[in-house]
Structure formats: C-alpha cells, structure tokens
Amino acid sequence: MSICGVRKRAGWAALLLLTSSPFAIALADDAATKPPAAAALLDLPTAKPASAGAEDVAPTGALKQTLPAPRSRTISKLDLSPPPGFLPDLPPELHPPSFSPPPNANVAAPAARADASPLAKTDASPRASETPKGGAARSAPPSPSGATAPNEPTQAEISPGPPADAAETVVANALANEIQAVVNLFVAADPAHRPIGAGDWSAARKAIAAYYAERNYAPLWTDADHLSAGAKSALARLAKAREDGLNLSNLPRPSPEWSDHALHAQAEADVEISAAVVAYAMQATGARINPRALSKNISAKPEVADPAFVLKSVAAADDPDATLAAFNPPQAGYRALRAALGAMRDQGPTPVARFSPGPVLKLGMSDPRVPLIRARFGLSSLKDGSSSRVYDVRVASAVAAFQRVHGLPVNGALTQATANALDGANARERRELLILANMEMWRWEPREMGETRVEVNVPDFSLKLMSGDSVIRRARVIVGKPDTPTPIFSNSIKYMLFNPVWRVPDSIIKKEMAPKYAADPAYFARHGYKVSYVGHKLVVEQPPGEENALGRMLFLFPNEHAVYLHDTPLRSLFSASYRALSHGCVRVENPTRLAEILMGGAGRGWTDAKVRSLLGDKERTFSLPAPVPIHLQYFTEFVDENGALHEREDLYGLTRKVALALAELR
Fold first, then answer.
1. Higher confidence at residue 367 or residue 31?
2. Selection from 573, 533, 532 nearest residue 549 by Cα
3. Distance between CA 191 and CA 307 in Å, rounded?
4. What are the domain boundaries of the chain?
5. What is each CA distance from 614 to 174, 345, 621, in whole angstroms?
6. Which pLDDT value is given to residue 357?
7. Which of 258, 256, 301, 305 lies closest to 280 in space, CA to CA?
8. SS3 298
C-alpha cells in the first residue's frame, strides 16, 4: 500500500487519484524479522546490593540550585502544532537542533541571522540560480490550508527559471500537481505505525509538506521516469538502517532500479523517499524514546533533527549516503558499539551450553561440564597441559562476573540457578537487544561533548577525564544506590569548593538521622554535627574536617538534582567491586589530582602542594579557568580501548526499559 494511505472517508475522488496509474513500491532490504519477545529475554532477577558495612551519609540535597544545565549547544523544540483545518499550517520559524550539519552536506547558507544556529530552519526554496528537477516554471499552487512558511520567500525567489519549452512546462506543472496531491494525502493520512516512536510523526509530515510547498512542489528525488543519483545514494543508506539499530521496515520506498513514466507514480516515489529519509534522521538523533518518560532521574535530552533541514541537507549533498549516516551519534563509544553489533551478527551460531544435572561446582573441582562453561565464555584451552575439566580461577571469575550482571548471588560457583541462566538459548538475542539499547542511549548525549570533559559511567563505577578520544585520567567512583540513583544528565563543572560544610538534606535527616537521634539524644554531638532550628524546621550541618561526609573538596556544577562530585572520608569503599552506595552524588577517588588538572595544573600554579595548602577549617571557593563539561552516563554495554566488549549490571533497570521500549516499536 502506498505511504499516502487512503481512508474510506477520503472519497472516491481521492481513490481514483491514487489508482489512476501504477507505481512501484519496494520494501526495505533491512525489514527485519520480529525478534524474540523482549520481555522474556530481559526479565531477569534484580540484584540486591550487598551491605557496604558502613553508614552512608552522602548528600543529594545540599547546595541545591535550580539553574538550567548548560550544554555545548542548546536545542529548540520543534513546534508544529495541529492545523485548524483539514490540511496543515506550516510551522513557525523556530530554532531546530543545534548539532553541526553532517559532513558533505553541500547546503546553501541561509540569509544571515544573528540568532540562527547551524541547524536552523532555512529558506528551503530553490536558490536563484537553482532550477528544480523538471526544469520548467510553474505558477505557485496554493499552500495547504493557508499555511505560511518560515521566512516565506517571494514568488520571484521560489519560481524556477524560464522553461526550456512549453512541453516541459506542461509536464513540470502536471508533476507538481501530482506531488501536491500526494503530499496532501500523506499529511491527512492516519498511519497505524509510528516510524519515529515517541516523536511526533504528524508534525514531521507537516514539515515535509511545508518543505515541498516552499519548493513549489518540485521533485527532490526523481528525474523524469527514474531516480536521481542522489536518490539512489540515499536509498543505499536507508537499506543499511539496521546496522545502526534503526527500523524503517514499515516505511515503503522504491527500489534503486525503480522506473515509471506515470507522473502519479513519480510523485509517490518522491514523497516516499522523503518520508523515509526524515524518519531515518529523526530516529538516528533520538526521536523514538523520551528519556524523561523512563525515569524522572534522566534529564538527558536528544537533539532531534529538524525535518526541513534533513531534506535540504541530504538532497543537496554530494554524498547523501554519508550525509544521512552522519545523523547518528558521532562519538567513538557509539561507533565501537555499532562495530561490536555488526561483528556479533556476522558470527556463526554461538555454542549454547546445556548442562546436565550435577553437584555445585567450586574452585578446584573437576567435572565434564567445565568445557561447556569455557565454550560459553570463550575461554581458550589451557596451555600448561592441565585438564580443561578443572574448574579453575579463570572459569570461576567468569562465572562470578556473569552472576553479578544477571542479579544472581555472586560466589563464582556453578549453582543450579547459574546453570539455568547459562542454559538460555536466547542469550545471544538478549545481548543484541542490550547493545541496541545502549546505542540508543548514546543518542541522548550532546553531539558536541567538549574537547576536555569528564565522563562518569554509573554502571561501571568509573570516571574518565578525556581530551578528545584520549583518556587523561581514570578514577573509581561511588554512585547512587538503586533507591537513590545518580541522575543521568550533562552539565559543566564551574567551581571548586574546599573544606565544605555539609548541609544535611531534609530527606536524610528524616529517614536516617531522626530515628538515631530519638534513640540516642547525644547522636548529633558525638558525630560533630551542629543542630539549629529555623522556625520548627530542624537544620543539621557538619563543619569542615576529616570526618565531613563530603571529604575535603567538591566539584560543583549547579543542577536541578543538587548532585555533584566530591571527596569522601570512607576511602576504603573504593576497593569494593560493587559501589552503588551513595544517596545520588558521585564520590571520586583521589580528587586532589583531578582538582589540579581542572584548575589548570602546574602552568597556573595548581600543584599537589597548592591543593593541600588550601585544606583547613574554612570554606574556600575557586572558579575553574573555564567550565569543563561533565556527562553522567549510563552504559551497561561498552567497548574498552583494547576493543573488548564489556557488560555491566543494570543497576537502575534503565537498559532493560530502553530495550523493551525499542522492541515495542518493531
């Protein structure tokens, strides 16, 4: 069925228009078979964190400020409100997403505007020297429902040059009329599927219609009775959408070899390609899932591409394939996961261990099931001649890691529950779903993350200070517990605070301190807290010192969640493998060295000795030489610098939520 669709109430006239001539529709080569039920693959037991063995007093509410989180660039929401009539009004001129145009996008520069971003909507009409495909002039048809385009050009600006001859004029006008009719039906259709998921496909269709109207309904992709070279290049990328975890299987489009003399078929083919190109770019930039709908602790926001910009940049590009592909995340972490996904799909069938009943296997035991475990984890045969049936340290370590990721008791022994989990025939399909979910979460990251930046991967309990794609410094971190999670967002570190006073958040006072105070009236005094009242409200503060819950320094990036990086007096906890122990803030190991680097290093006089000289009993605040972007991320699947794919425990269940949301869109 055509992408335009025909509803029964459209009337016999519209039906006759759609059936007046044949047209070719070829579904995408990448139309994937529906995967196994994602819920069955992802419904795993939830791990309960082990007790840290020490009271956790990290804050989430101190120094709360409600400043907006700065980004490398800002984003403007695409506002394409519903039409007052049957056909759409064109959208008002707004600022679109702020990421840089894809490479090789040979797009004419818009008229100068002081407030325009690199992806701002531009006058989409043909340039003065540009003649729309078809080569003939045509009087402007009426825009849908009285719509007015942003920066609406004059008739002189949008009219192509004089026709080569009268016959070309007649053909061009006839084709434009067909395209207008197809576009009108395309906008009015009520599609059963959602090609951009949580994104507003109705608004996107209106934007496509507006772009065609601004072009005077000249074709974008067809050249007489066949497709242009640019169309074939774009179709080549659309056919590879699955490689980036995108799904265009419900969007019809012509094959590269398509050819048809019928003008209506040409119009349909043109609009179908436009719809698929826009859907690809919007999926690639994160339109399918609203992160905030998954959790209130996610403030990350995708920079979804503007449909008009997509069509203009891809259609005008020297290499539409590369230009369209560039709407996917540009970060090295995304590209590495994409490569890992491709390698996994290219592999032959993975050996599936099916274990026979037997005793619990522990370190040092010999058993015929051990070779199956080695195959399951890809462990090579022993080189020292020892029996491959021995349950050695390498096998036990691999089993322990598997247990932690899957929420099983972590003891390194092959228990019956562990054997059942390893027996899963859908283990490979499940891993693919998790990789796809993590690729989707990369679409939430700012496209420009900052040359020098701090990245904290919550499930990995790690911090990296980055310069480009190179790691300057690593540190272990302690993150929020599952019931007090560390939020996921981007911001910029602006200040350093030495010798902080901990102003205990109300939530911690009520839930943790008040019961202890009720049982022991000397509790606050014995722990060095200062207690006061503001009206009837209890205020608790902990003065600077070695016992202060914030340690000796804070890295401040004012945000709506009131979290930050900080030191801790409980430094022994960094040696634990499970470090989801805080109330939401991120405790960082050896913060002194991080402070030196962020404050400018020895070149600006910031040495270890300088930092230590500031430690004392009075708060001191310093501004960084320049704000440093910080990204609190959530990646349970990632590839390290050596090319190894890693899996981490889904601490907050976010990966599973994303995987299920994507599966529902298939």
1. 367
2. 573
3. 18
4. 10-24+118-328, 370-424, 448-653
5. 78, 55, 10
6. 82
7. 305
8. strand
